[in-house]
Amino acid sequence: MTIRESIEEREKEIYSPFASLSMNSKGREIPEKECDIRPVFQRDRDRILHSKAFRRLKDKTQVFLTPEGDHYRTRLTHTLEVSQNARTIAKALSMNEDLVEAIALGHDLGHTPFGHAGERALNRVCPFGFVHAEQSVRVVSKLERDGRGLNLTYEVRDGIRNHGFSSTPSTLEGKIVRFSDKIAYMHHDMDDAIRAGILSDEAVPDEISEVIGKTLSERLDSFIHDIIINSQGKNDIIMSEPVEKALIALRKWMFENLYTNPVAKGQEGKAENLVETLYTYFFNRPDKMPDEYQALISKGERKEIVACDFISSMTDRYAIGVYNDLFIPIPWLIK
To answer: Does CATH place domain 3-327 in 1.10.3210.10?
Structure first.
């Protein structure tokens, strides 16, 4: 028996009857020889962690565009916090931590520069629309490894595609990540807003804080404990009704007071214009895109989709640099 097989047998003994067992995976789009050490979801986690798209997350906006402070979150730190929350819940519920971690680390790989401002811009100008969850699946299925993709398992791709609240993952591990994503961004976005002097814990309405706590740590603890307590022994991942209502109310309050706040979001119009301009340029001049994207077009991919592929892959800094090179005149100096 290989090490992988012994790990798979151990999963049967220690995991919940509702957990996703590695040996029962629906498999990969392209069949591969099994690793003799790592189960399939662990291999997926490792592939995501070593991908170029994962490394680029460190220079992509979470909420604050190109913040000056060293401690504001980026798309990468958001991803790590989602992963940590999800692993805590999965461990307590005896779910498959490897699957949870793979989904969490991959869920935002297709996100645009400048956060949701960049996503809105591409969705507006691309006739086929643009959704970052679908783009994340495209990254792992087609764009990584010079067009070969990472060839991840069905369960990981499903969790990545369905991490939004409007979708339903097919595994409980995917549902854990879906909750963990919302919990993470409301926790750390509030933390960043407090650091920026935009919001305060005391400003959270009493009807919310009385249910889930008056501080950041109390609210995070309430959410995670509530999910664990209410999901134990069930074939579902759920919150209690009062806490879920508080979660929804807090999210609504943050949209009204942070996500549309001119101090935090005052530059988003510029970011959207930048992204739209880059899309128009590269759609009309696909020969100016890197070879790997031109190769996609030569294989029959639509220019609109490939232009989105290129732009969504950019970090904030790279997008600004490309825009400057293309559209900002360089002073001419006489030597």
So the answer is: yes
Residue 102 CB: number of other CB atoms within 10 A?
A: 32
Residue type, 259: Y
What's the predicted TM-score (pTM) here?
0.95
Q: What pLDDT, on the 0 to 100 scale, is given for residue 192?
A: 86
What confidence tier does 266 reach under pLDDT thresholds 50, 70, 90?
low
Residue in the block written with tokens 């030569």: 298
Q: Where are the domains of the chain?
A: 3-327
- Within 8 A by CB and 6+ apart from 95, the residues are 15, 16, 18, 19, 20, 89, 172, 173, 176
Contacts 24+ apart (CB under 8 A), 154-159: 154/25, 154/26, 154/27, 154/28, 155/20, 155/25, 155/26, 155/41, 155/99, 155/103, 156/41, 156/44, 156/99, 156/102, 156/103, 156/106, 159/99, 159/102, 159/103, 159/107
